[in-house]
Amino acid sequence: MNKKQLAHLEKRLLEERARVLKELGHYEESFSATLQGANGDLSSYSFHMADQGTDAMEREKQFLFASQEGRYLWHVNEALRRLYFTPEKFGKCHECGEEIDFERLDALPHARLCIKCKAKEEDGKRR
């Protein structure tokens, strides 16, 4: 992989990292916002049981999305570590050692596996 391609992938990874951090910031704001602040009531309790269920479901969804974004951020950070500390190995499949297609890395810059090895891994998980 040439330096221009590596610079492009570094830029993509940094953009993804910034996007995820911004998204996590939005989740943090929503987690820290109280129900009192949201609707102006003095009580943070819902008046109806259905409202309590809806509130709990919404909080659970937000935690799920934040958790997914956190895992994605970890993968992006790992890819940046690989790029900075071992640039000669970046873009090579962790299973077979072959070059990962630039198109795959452009679409998924934190990819660790080539298409063939990823397909094998996915087939193994389905069984």
Write up this protein:
The protein is an all-alpha fold and 127 residues long. Helices cover 71% and strands 0% of the residues. The longest helix is centred in the middle third of the chain and has 37 residues, at 49-85. The model has no long low-confidence stretch (mean pLDDT 85).
Keywords:
mainly alpha; Four Helix Bundle (Hemerythrin (Met), subunit A)
Helix proportion range: over 70%
Morphology: elongated
DSSP summary: helix tally: 5
Average pLDDT, rounded to a whole number, is 85
Number of domains: 1
Rg estimate, integer Å: 21 Å
In the CATH hierarchy, the third-tier topology is known as Four Helix Bundle (Hemerythrin (Met), subunit A)
Low-confidence stretches: none
Assembly state here?
single chain
Which class best fits the helix and strand makeup? mainly alpha
Considering the protein shown, what is the CATH homologous superfamily?
DksA, coiled-coil domain
DSSP, total strands: 0
The biggest sheet, with number of strands, parallel, antiparallel or mixed sense and barrel status, is: none
Tell me the CATH architecture: Up-down Bundle
**CATH domain class:** Mainly Alpha
Percent strand: under 5%
Task: Give the termini distance in whole angstroms.
Answer: 35 Å
N-to-C SSE series? HHHHH
